[in-house]
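Researcher: First entry.
Model:
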Amino acid sequence: MSRATPAAQAGAPAVESGGPALELLVHGVGGTTPQKMLDDPRTVCVTGDDTAAIYRRAEDADAETHPERYRDRPVPEAYVWCNLTSGNSARALWLLLLPFMVINLAHWMRPPAKEPHWAIRLYGVLVRLVALSLTVLLVAAACEVALDLTAWQCAGSAACSRSWYWLGFTSVAHHGWWSQPGRRLALAALAPAGLTFLLWYLSNRTWSAYESQQPLNAEPANDPAEAVKPAFSRPGFWYGRRLVARLRAAHTAAGFLTTAAGVTGAAARYDRAATSAVFETLGLLLESTLAVTGIVVVWVVCRRGRTETHLDEQLDRAVTAWLPVASLALLALALVYASWDRADWVSSGALPGDRSFGFLAFAQGVLIIALAAVALHLRRRAPGERTALCGLGGPAVAMLACALGGVMTGGVAQRVAAWVDHGAIHRASFNGPPALLTWQSSVIPALLALLIPVVLFFAVRTWRTARADAPRVMADYPTEQPDTARTRRIAGARAMAGLTDHAPVFLGILSGASLLLGAAALVGAWWTGEVPEQAADGAATPIAFAADAAQSLGSWCTGFGFLLFVTWGRRAYKDAAARRTVGILWDVGTFWPRAAHPFAPPCYAERAVPDLAWRMNTWTERTGGRLVISGHSQGSALAAAAVWQLPAATRRRVALLTYGCPVERLYGRWFPTYFGPAPLQALHQEVHCWRNLWRATDPIGGPVLTGGDVDKGPLLDPLAYGRTREHPLPAPILGHSDYQADPAFGRERALLLAELASGVPNQRADQGSSGRSSG
């Protein structure tokens, strides 16, 4: 993690005496080893387990019993949490849960207004409903593959089923017990039902393994200044047991109900056309019961949000236990009902209910538009806050989650249809996936064509910014001889780092285009009821050719996108480097608790933040010493969240040192309610002292406050422009890494320890110094 050099301690003042001092290091994204963090091959685990633990150098294991050895330096400790995200190879398969993770992020992107309360509550309800629609979409896609394409269309066609020996016992050509359509559907329904059970199991198991940690019990707010706290200070923020259990039960029930509806709908439709009044009545009762249970699921999702003011240990047993069981019982009844003998029933065409994908897409669009309206209303209540996309970051991310869900599920359906049908050689008896999925594939080339000019625009802008920044680069190294190539590399690194600030614009264009093109696909599918190339029959040849080309290219794009997910996950299962890359995605995306979707990858912060808070609180109480928590990159967000959880007495003994910190630059813009200017200013006032180091070449880190002496930067990067006595070889452009190699790191750490020892905090809200200095 660090590139320790003698210069790293140059200019650092001596640490004042005042009890033992501890430096708690927290690494960033991608993970590392305790040996690298501590710059020593011999380390020992002080406390923790194989998932997350605190390490020391072997020679520092008993540091508290020999304080005379550490009068002039702190005892270094390393908190290693990388196994929470990228340690186990099986976790690479979490990549397939990407839409669930993205919609969970939308919940935390609410604008920072504190009123009206109805709008705040409605924002959360709308995000949870979009999340529920994604679960229904995933299970519906599984039903489309298993029930419609395989059991209904292919097994119902003698020509198609003859090509697959494993479908032989269900083929209509054999006239066996399984050849009836209802029994084939009942058998195929085990696949989406098994998928639902697997999601429930993973969610329940990961909650027990990662998120069921008890947070540090905060002291009662005796001080009036402690009474009103930011959200991260609330004792129940990192413990969402009740809500996750309710959502897990509701989403599991929704999966079972979706499968039951797919089986029941086909059988009930046949019974309504037949002469049996008994079966028609049974089908009507079962469909009505499924509809009522679905309404109950929606009510459970909307009824209750997060409880953060206290540890909510209570579980709603009627919901968490009986709702999934009741839905599973209805699924069993649906399978029995569909399996009843119907000798004259023949499957033809597509499975009834293929238009449900259109209704689902329409509902998602309406929910996202409503979410955008609520977000704009909240944004007007906090006009001075800096938020991504003027408060529309949450709706844009929700739209991205729906687009990802559509691409993944549509890609599966398209590729399975092509695989089962052997390239459409049985087109007369094989209809393929629903028309909407084909129309959605057709608009993907248009979306890519729209994004290409945007990418080119940002590329040209970055190039021009790098050229304009060349004189400023030389101004930072006034004594050096100019080197055109060296200057271009440094200016290019700074310009590339600035692309992070334009990410909201790119995401806004992508989400807006996805919404409009998705609406066009929905209108096209409902208007024609056919796939694009069929709708173009009888038209001019160029139109038909363009429609067929767009559909084919889009189909391959969706299939390629899904295969890319699977291949990447498979590679990450075997390759540690690729697994680390996948882990970086989860380091950023799973910082937040599962407040919208219970099947999202688990939140590692619900384990890491209590770990850090417990360690800081117990060590300072036991030793009476001073503590600097030193966080890099994502570790700085964990460090800040842990400091927020500390009692006031402990915070007075803790200093915060952050570097490469995304707390304001990324989190402050995208999650202003939790990392906006007001919460950061509150942390600035509550913590004893705080320093933040940043570089202009860092694409992730940046300053955290506009006032006070917290921010130290931009630090020089590289440390030397040319060859010097201290750097005889060219110094690297470090960007986001190796902040500890900068002399400012050792200097600022020593100053923090000295301020802790003196008992005089270095900053307060009324200080007006700029807080920016060059390295």
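Researcher: Second entry.
Model:
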Amino acid sequence: MLKSKSFVRKTKQGKVVKVVREHYLRDDIYCGASFCKVCDSSAARLSSSASTILIVDTNVVLNQIDLLENPAIDDVVVLSVVLEEVKNKNLSVYNRIRALCSDSMRKFFVFSNEYHKDTYVKAMVGESPNDRNDRAIRVATQWYQNHLGPLGGATQVLLITNDRENKRKATEEGISAETVESYVKALGEPGLLDLLVQPPSEDVGMEEVEDLRPSKRKVIYTEHKPMSEITSGLHRGIYHQGKLRVNRYNPFEAYVGSESIGDEIIIYGRGNMNRAFDGDIVAVELLPQDQWHGEKSLSIGDVDDEEDEEVHLVPSSADDAPRVTNPVQDTARDMNLVACRPSGRVVGIIKRNWHSYCGSLEPMPMPAGSGGVTHALFVSKDRRVPKIRIQTRQLGNLLDKRIIVAVDSWDCISRYPAGHYVRTIGEIGDRDTESEVVLIENDIDARPFSSQVLACLPPLPWSVSSEDLANPIRQDLRHLCVFSVDPPGCKDIDDALHCTALPNGNFEVGVHIADVTNFVHPGTPLDDEATQRGTSVYLVERRIDMLPKPLTEDICSLRADVERLAFSVIWEMTPEAEIISTRYTKSVIKSCAALSYIEAQARMDDSRLMDPLTTDLRNMNALAKFMRLRRIERGALTLASAEVKFQIDTETHDPLDIGMYQIREANQMVEEFMLAANISVAEKILKHFPPCSLLRRHPSPTKEMLEPLLRTAAAVGLNLDMSTSKALADSLDRAVGDDPYFNKLIRILATRCMTQAVYFCSGDLSPPEFFHYGLAAPLYTHFTSPIRRYADVVVHRLLAASLGIYKLPIIFQDRPQLTRIADNLNYRHRNAQMAGRSSVELHTLIYFRKRPTDTEARIVKIRSNGFIVFVPKYGIEGPVYLTSRGEKGGGEWFVDEQQQKVKKIDGSISYSVLQTVRIHVEVVEPQPNRPKLQLTLI
């Protein structure tokens, strides 16, 4: 049956046009019930023994997705009209309900009611889209009742809705309908009630919501402005829009980057944050200029001390409150205030960033009796998140557990946001539990790959076929002495090298990268999964792969003595590493050696070894030194990071030893050729596809970001020129002293002042914005790690299309979609970094729990009541107090901000920035369930 479906839309020119589309209706869409004799039951999803089939409305899906994901809820019909509405309102929830519907272990069925002739409803005159959709849901429910009534026997079809009017109409029409709460109560599982999001007052099912009596309750926060007023205020320049970022060291201080004033607005105190969470898009009103915060003697706060809520509801004078952390890429902003920065207050929330949080309940005595509802405070492991008030019927089971809680609302008369329990992770302090918390906090998908994804893999054992060798697009390079150099124990080897001396005195040098796209094809479940994961994640004790292990460790891994498919970049270079020519080819290689960095370095250093492999290594290293020198001459920065290496017990997975990661010449050699390959590929793909190449840029740091480094350098007599990356690189080279570690420490501090490098679509920016500041390269991309980064998979497809090997996939013609992929890659890359850092932090705590240690540290920040130190041996950072905790002001200590010194009033003792001090390191637990490293001056 054919019907016409019409709607109106506004064009880019502002005209309103009517769009009419043909809408095909069918009568052969099956119901999904396995016991149905009328429909095709070969693909049935609902249980044959189902006593109740649930049909959920849109708001139930949007608000109660945590409940729906619980295995106790099954035999659910999700209507296509509901799916479409959820997709338009919340893409995250849409993805979760789609995952439920495609999970073979769950009994969720999508019924295309919009295309069934008996369930399609046409909008009536004057009917709102919402009312039309509610009517469509009721019609579909009634169809299921009539359709299954004679067949289902005792099976009941039940509409689940919290909408009072929808429930009333359903009852009048003879449809069985229940609220979420009444249905869950009838199941007799009290724990499920904890999962419920409390519905707003206009909905039904308010039995468990306390009477707030707004007129009798104290208003704690200012009401948020309505969106109409916010929009008007933004247009008139009264309000400023931006993303709120809460200080990682101090949860009572936040920043909003505002394009409208070209600066960051500082928000002090919970009152001025006005119920905004980290990551919310907010509207901010500037405070009068006499209330802006200028530079002053900052003290070290401690977010682990008990919160004084009354203090922090008004603009707070609390400053830095650092926690012990690994400092790699921590932004200088988190530890410094710049003079006369604009200060403001949040007046409205434009877009919420609420999600699920990991933590534990604040310890409390068990109430008298059992089984009743108890109100408890949830404390997130992320110190930027305020305490969340939940109600639970299983307090005794949760007090010693790490749990997940979701936020539901935050009323202006409530000191805390309200939320609900989602699930239990495990025992507090258990290493596996705490590792899972790291993954959840950073939105890392560590689930096993689905059967649909694994079905995309070629059968094992896999080997290069005669068809591969005969393929004209693929060059046979098995005769070359190809080798790989990686960290010890590396199994996912995605790059290899070769270096052959040519008769003319030049060298042929090749970078060979695993040909992942030969196995990962666009539009397949395998490709979709890799798109979402974005990157492999490296934790201290394990690796979470972007692709299944058969690919990462076998089929694609360029292991020694096996033939593998590769994508090769091959140069002819002079002995001074000047590139004469470049070519790109798909290839077949056979690696002759898989070396570790230590093994490669040992070969190069052993003058007795003159074999071909060692000779090739030395030639490549000589070329790499020329390449590195030229890169530095162009202005590339040689920065440093405090990368930590753990020795892990193979049985318990606990850390046995910890130390700084050592960089050798072999590491630098490999890095140089990977950088060169990435730059060559970037030039090639951009030349062929100017509007849709995936590139990587590194924006220049702002003057404000470099200010802390300048101040520290000046305090120790260094004059750093930061006018260009070249000037900064030269200044860093000159920053040497008697202390061999001094230069590395300055470079670590410089690293923190840098912006993050990001992926982008070339059509979104102008060529001057493509520049990579750190590498001083006008063009850059990622090509060399497709096993572990999806960005490289995209770039491989672009390179293959530029060579005419394959057609350009259709996605590259949709620039907005490519931009969305780049945005997801940036999000996933950042999360993987944060997860790796959190894993190091966790294992550092585990290591020091049984090993209190005395060690050397360097002062990196001076504060009025102490200083912040960096411990080179262990790569950790934290506060050292000179005055008693909680003591106001500096007491007997005086701070010289200009010279970055803190000294006793009587002049007997002083400490200065970058000075070496000895400290004691131990694990303490000042608050239950929040262990931390305590650093004490010896």
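Model: Note on the second entry: The first helix runs from residue 58 to 63.
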